[in-house]
Design a protein that fits this description.
Elements (H helix, E strand, L loop, with lengths): L1 H28 L1 H8 L5 H13 L5 H10 L9 H5 L9 H32 L5 H4 L1
């Protein structure tokens, strides 16, 4: 009778260990999701879904999910815009001022284009029409 009690205790310990390991694996795969949620990542749900897919792909995607989740920060975003503009992230100008400056540049370019088109049409009209004998 003592052997049966010990068998049930061993079975209980085995089931507990298996459930704990399963929970630990799922918890570890949710770490990129938790990082993304804390950083207010724009691809939060995609990272969470890919974490579950990674469980079925023998954890092949998990390191990439970790990198993906940690690349984005709320203050600087992806960190690319400051490198492109040559400015520090905090030194970016007011978006409204940038919009006004861009509208002014577009207006200047439209004026130049209109002037160029007028000059071209004037040049075409001033060309001497050729007679059919001269074309050949």
């Amino acid at each position: 009778m003592e052997g049966r009690v010990l068998d049930f205790i061993a079975l209980g310990i085995l089931v507990t260990v298996v459930i704990t390991l399963l929970y630990a694996v799922i918890y570890i795969h949710d770490i990129p999701y938790e990082i993304a949620k804390k950083r207010n990542h724009p691809h939060l749900h995609a990272i969470h879904t890919a974490g579950w897919v990674s469980l079925f792909l023998m954890h092949a995607l998990w390191p990439f999910l970790w990198i993906w989740a940690t690349l984005y920060t709320p203050k600087t975003g992806w960190g690319i815009s400051s490198a492109v503009n040559g400015q520090k992230p905090d030194a970016q100008g007011d978006p409204n001022q940038e919009l006004v400056a861009l509208k002014a540049r577009v207006a200047v370019l439209e004026e130049k284009l209109e002037l160029t088109l007028k000059q071209q049409s004037k040049a075409i009209l001033e060309q001497k029409p050729q007679s059919p004998a001269e074309e050949v």
